[in-house]
Amino acid sequence: MVRLTIAPGVFLWREKFSPSQQKALLDDVLRRLEEAPLYRPVMPGTGKPFSAEESNFGPLGWVADKAGYRYQPAHPLTAKPWPAIPSALLALWDKINGMPAPQCCLVNLYRAGAKMGLHQDRDEGDTSAAVIGVSLGDEALFRIGSATRGGKTVSVTLASGDVIAFGGPARLAYHGIDRIKPGSSRLIPNGGRLSLTLRRVVKP
Question: Are the C-beta atoms of residues 75 and 61 closer than 8 Å to each other?
């Protein structure tokens, strides 16, 4: 599989997951979401809801509410531990980052009109490994810049099965989803895009 360099430290693999692998991964993800249902986080302070829904897999999950951003071991609505990270994602992590394993898989569901503003993944104590993102479903316009807000950015379309990783000089780069293209995939029930983002959280 050819690895494309998008920017220093930012790499893209087109259709890293084949259509059959995408379907198998989606089925696995949907089963786990029955244990940890998607919910809509809100912005700290203002309480404004995100346009995307989210959940998590792994020992720790990233949450956002009026109190702030943080990682915690349980779902904020069910108070139950997050389900384990799917084995296909752990294998992908091992190929790209090696050990130690990821501690969080953030699951974001983007329906028509949903987006994610430019932000840094900076709530983690361990930034030695690259962040890895897997796309399932509708295409999305992904934008990434530098670790300085307001700097030059690069945009790339992410399609179902694509994998993007950013680490090293790009680990703290500002990035976001400008928009999705509704109807560009039939993979997700009722349409939309699932983003599966793997991260280390605390140092070994």
Answer: yes
